[in-house]
Amino acid sequence: MSKQQGFTLIELVMVIVILGILSAFALPRFANLGTEARAATMQGVLGSVRSASAISYSACLVSSGCSESAATGQSVTLEGQPIALAYGYPTTASILTAAQIASADFEIATAGTIAAKNASGTCEVTYAAPTAVNTSPAIAIDVSGC
């Protein structure tokens, strides 16, 4: 008598059912990765904006021709690009250049607002230049709708 090897039909059906159940639980987890990726990207943008702001301010402090008490008319050069300053920090219009953020990669509806593409709600970093001497720029992130 020869011994048969392999799976029975019932065993094959059970494996398919178990795989179907596992995939039903795993699919929502993988579908949510786009949201997490957009939120992580915006965290990176936040870091870029903060760094660019601090580097611009430092460059103004060490430059003999730059005054951190001037509201307009001041600029520094970063990576060969002129950055307009307000009280030593990048202006709202020049923060994208200072942070080297490409407008093709994000939605830029207004100056100082950098939003993620394909977000279902609010998923943005906002930057507002300082409005007085000895104040820092307002930099905020909202990833509630990524």
Provide structural commentary.
The protein has 146 residues and is α+β, with helices and mostly antiparallel strands. The protein has one domain. Helix content is 40%, strand content 18%. It is built from three helices and six strands; from the N terminus they run ααβββαβββ. The protein has helices at residues 9-31, 33-62, 95-99; strands spanning 74-78, 81-86, 89-90, 113-115, 124-128, 138-142. The strands form two sheets. The chain has a three-stranded antiparallel beta sheet with strand order 1-2-3. It is rod-shaped and about 100 Å long. The model has no long low-confidence stretch (mean pLDDT 90). The chain crosses the membrane at residues 6-27. This is Type II secretion system protein. Pfam families: N_methyl. InterPro entries: N_methyl_site, Pilin-like. Keywords: Membrane, Transmembrane, Transmembrane helix.
Furnish the topology, listing elements before pairings.
Blueprint: H1 9-31, H2 33-62, E1 74-78, E2 81-86, E3 89-90, H3 95-99, E4 113-115, E5 124-128, E6 138-142
Antiparallel strand pairs: 1-2, 2-3, 4-5, 5-6
InterPro entries: N_methyl_site, Pilin-like
Organism: Hydrocarboniclastica marina
Transmembrane segments: 6-27
What is the gyration radius calculated from CA atoms?
26 Å
- Tally of individual domains: 1
Can you give the helix content as a percent range? 25-40%
Low-confidence stretches: none
Task: Give the overall pLDDT as a whole number.
Answer: 90
Largest sheet: 3 strands, antiparallel
Number of helices: 3
- Kindly report how far apart the N and C termini lie: 65 Å
Strand order across the biggest sheet?
A: 1-2-3
Structural class: alpha+beta
Report the order of strands and helices.
HHEEEHEEE
Number of strands: 6
Described by the principal axes of the CA atoms, the overall outline is: rod-shaped
Kindly estimate the percentage of residues that lie in beta strands according to DSSP: 15-25%
